[in-house]
Specification:
This protein is of the alpha/beta class. Helices cover 27% and strands 27% of the residues. It contains ten helices and 17 strands. Strands 11-10-12-13-9-16-17 form a seven-stranded mixed beta sheet, with helices on both faces. Strands 4-3-2-7-6-5 form a six-stranded antiparallel beta sheet, with no helix packed on it. Strands 1-8 form a two-stranded antiparallel sheet. Helix 6 packs parallel to helix 7.
């Protein structure tokens, strides 16, 4: 498993007293993010836990030093560093001045998906679930590279926040031969998804952070055209998605149905029950519990039906 993190390019944009501490740290390979808040000590968050970087507190000058050296912040308060996968997010005060920064380390990790290669070769659509920061974007970046480079498929990435292919017009090498379409505004993501199908004839579409009802509907439209989908969404497990009315369409949608007295008696349930409305847009689902533990649903249709009947056990 190879890791490409361009960490030096992120550290070079930090004030010298922070740069020096991190550059000499023996833990820097485990760095997740750096948190800089006005009037507070700078803090680094490692996989092993948080750590203060200096006795000195962050000043307006320190924040200004960083913001002048990176790209402009988007409407969703995110910026990046040219030709890297790092992400800098800002916090603003009531006058819209930046008074806090979160500098998140972006890493292209090659070889992370070897255990699910057979699922990619099946040609089925894959949905990746997990809480924020668990590594979903890293996984789909590597999936895009494997599908485009090793399986020689036409892959288009819908890159809403430039997290998959980096903050540059030239995409990061971590996506291989896959092509990337940038999204000017988050609310336009569903339109760019449909545009990719109509204009560029992809065999696979990769989407990060499907989060609205319009995006879920666009995803279903793409699935019905026979294009393989690889997407991520927030939610720890399939059960969270079932309870989310905006996104439940990704796994077939949910509806109340009324069954006969005999059927209710046979099932041991009430007459009004929940059932899946239609076929899921994604046939496979992966719940990323942490870096070392994934739960794989090889038949989403069946898993959803079992959850609704409250007869579900994790099998893989």
């Amino acid at each position: 498993m190879n890791i490409d993190d361009d960490l030096e390019k992120l550290l070079n944009n930090l004030p010298f007293f922070i740069y020096q501490h991190l550059y000499n740290s023996s833990n820097k390979e485990k760095l997740i993010e750096i948190v800089l808040d006005l009037g507070r000590r700078p803090e680094a968050r490692f996989t092993t836990g948080p750590e203060y970087l200096s006795q000195k507190v962050i000043s307006w000058q320190d924040i200004d030093y960083i913001t002048k050296r990176i790209s402009k912040f988007s409407g969703e308060n995110r910026a990046g560093i040219e030709r890297t996968l790092h992400r800098i997010s800002c916090i603003r005060n009531r006058q819209f001045l930046i008074n806090g920064l979160t500098c998140r380390v972006g890493r292209a990790i090659f070889g992370t998906i070897s255990i699910i290669r057979d699922l990619l070769e099946s040609g089925k659509s894959i949905l990746i679930l997990g809480k924020p920061g668990v590594g979903k974007t890293t996984i789909i970046r590597e999936i895009a590279r494997v599908l485009s480079d090793e399986m020689e498929k036409r892959v288009i990435i819908i890159d809403t926040s430039n997290e998959i292919a980096g903050d540059s017009d030239v995409p990061h090498s971590g996506i291989g031969r896959a092509r990337r379409m940038q999204v000017p505004k988050t609310e336009l993501q569903y339109k760019i998804m449909l545009e990719a199908i109509e204009n560029h004839m992809p065999q696979v579409i990769v989407i990060d952070e499907i989060g609205t009802e319009l995006e879920a509907l666009a995803t279903r439209t793409i699935a019905e055209k026979g294009v393989q989908l690889v997407g991520t969404t927030h939610g720890n497990c399939l059960e969270n998605l079932i309870k989310n009315p905006s996104l439940s369409d990704l796994i077939g949608g949910i509806q109340y149905v009324t069954i006969s007295d005999e059927e209710a008696k046979r099932r041991g349930t009430q007459k009004s029950i929940l059932e899946r409305k239609s076929y899921p847009a994604f046939q496979l689902a992966i719940e990323v519990n942490n870096s070392y533990s994934w739960t794989i649903h090889e038949n989403v249709e069946n898993s959803v039906d079992l959850i609704l009947r409250k007869d579900f056990n994790i099998s893989q």
